[in-house]
Write a structure and sequence with these properties.
- With 150 residues, the chain is of the alpha+beta class.
- It has one domain: Alpha-Beta Plaits (2-Layer Sandwich), CATH 3.30.70.1290.
- Helix content is 41%, strand content 19%.
- The protein is built from six helices and four strands, in the order βαββαβαααα.
- It has a four-stranded antiparallel sheet, with helices on both faces.
- A hairpin with a 2-residue loop joins β2 and β3.
- α1 packs across α2.
- The longest helix has 19 residues.
Length: 150
């Protein structure tokens, strides 16, 4: 085959440092838009963004040559820098080091998108900790809870 074809969708989740509720409604959408711009500059796209004050869910599509680790490093580094440069009252804003990433088949993109877009409602019933543990279990990932929340 002379050409490569990919359809790489990921549901990624990451939190603020110490899960501090720093993602406030006054800049949340601007942050998501900025992250979308970062992805676009990396030949990817942001399909959906949502979350709560202490974490973010993104449904993203990546270029075949962009690894999930590289994409998340670029998104987190540049968005944190943007927050510091744009919002004077967010000088202590930071992302936690790790992340969770799950592949999404094209047939499930709409379902995951709806899930992400209803995060505020979802977190009125379920905590971020409960949600993340459920995702890890659903995907059969081993974890040590002592190290998830650092």
């Amino acid at each position: 085959m002379g050409q490569s074809f990919t359809c790489l969708h990921y549901h990624v989740i990451f939190s603020t440092k110490h899960r501090a509720p720093q993602i406030t409604s006054d800049f949340r959408q601007r942050l998501y838009d900025y992250m979308g711009g970062i992805l676009k500059s990396e030949n990817g796209s942001l399909i959906a963004a949502g979350g709560a004050g202490d974490h973010v869910h993104l449904l993203i599509r990546l270029h075949a040559q962009t690894s999930v680790a590289d994409a998340l490093r670029i998104i987190k580094t540049n968005s944190s820098k943007w927050v510091h440069e744009t919002l004077a009252n967010k000088g202590d804003f930071a992302w936690q080091t790790g992340y969770a990433a799950f592949t999404v088949s094209r047939s499930n993109v709409a379902l995951v998108r709806r899930y992400i877009e209803t995060q505020e409602e979802h977190h009125q019933r379920v905590t971020f900790q409960e949600e993340l543990i459920a995702f890890l279990k659903k995907h059969g990932l081993e974890y040590d809870e002592r190290y998830i929340w650092e």
